[in-house]
């Protein structure tokens, strides 16, 4: 059983809390107004926009030491919807890992929409959460949380794969924003 702290109470934070709450795990939701609330989870999900990550790490970096930290962000330029805001050889998750060297950083949940996380389905397929990271135990812990919530989890490789996951998230978001795919749809992994 894991204790999951989710920083961010928007659609994604709520959907991930619902997933974690279906299993034997406990969930702590921390919103913007909860600055004095300590992070108590051994797994911490940063369910916040890319632009807010630096300030959250500055405020809570000490609290995140030794924890599994899950970055769900897509570093998309939301003004133009035409590029990622990280270098071509980097990722938001790599930036998080660099800022939190004493944490086990994972990339996950960024290739799904909140609606498909909450419903557990993309069309006729079970929603799949792709997980990238360098710590096998951390990935297994997150996979247990995901599968305990009724979804499928796939190990997508090392944290270096975060760049590709962010590219998939970027494409899916731009398709959703241009109404070429539904926010209740998106990409599915068929196994």
UniProtKB/TrEMBL annotation:
<dbReference type="InterPro" id="IPR028939">
    <property type="entry name" value="P5C_Rdtase_cat_N"/>
</dbReference>
<dbReference type="InterPro" id="IPR036291">
    <property type="entry name" value="NAD(P)-bd_dom_sf"/>
</dbReference>
<dbReference type="Pfam" id="PF03807">
    <property type="entry name" value="F420_oxidored"/>
</dbReference>
<keyword id="KW-0560">Oxidoreductase</keyword>
<dbReference type="InterPro" id="IPR051267">
    <property type="entry name" value="STEAP_metalloreductase"/>
</dbReference>
<feature type="domain" description="Pyrroline-5-carboxylate reductase catalytic N-terminal">
    <location>
        <begin position="37"/>
        <end position="75"/>
    </location>
</feature>
<protein>
    <submittedName>
        <fullName>NADPH-dependent F420 reductase</fullName>
    </submittedName>
</protein>
């Amino acid at each position: 059983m894991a204790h999951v702290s989710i920083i961010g109470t928007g659609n994604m934070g709520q959907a991930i809390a619902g997933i974690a709450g279906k299993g034997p795990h406990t969930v702590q939701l921390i919103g913007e107004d909860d600055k004095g609330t300590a992070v108590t989870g051994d797994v911490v999900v940063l369910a916040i926009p890319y632009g807010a990550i630096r300030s959250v790490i500055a405020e809570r970096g000490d609290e995140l030491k030794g924890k599994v930290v899950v970055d769900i962000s897509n570093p998309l330029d939301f003004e133009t919807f035409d590029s990622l805001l990280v270098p071509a050889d980097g990722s938001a998750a790599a930036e998080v890992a660099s800022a939190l060297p004493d944490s086990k950083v994972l990339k996950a949940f960024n290739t799904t929409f909140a609606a498909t996380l909450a419903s557990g389905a993309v069309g006729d397929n079970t929603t799949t959460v792709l997980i990238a990271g360098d710590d096998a135990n951390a990935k297994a812990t997150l996979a247990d949380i995901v599968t305990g919530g009724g979804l499928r989890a796939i190990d997508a490789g090392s944290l270096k794969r975060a760049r590709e996951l962010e590219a998939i998230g970027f494409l899916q978001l731009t398709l959703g924003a241009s109404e070429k795919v539904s926010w209740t749809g998106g990409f599915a992994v068929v196994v």
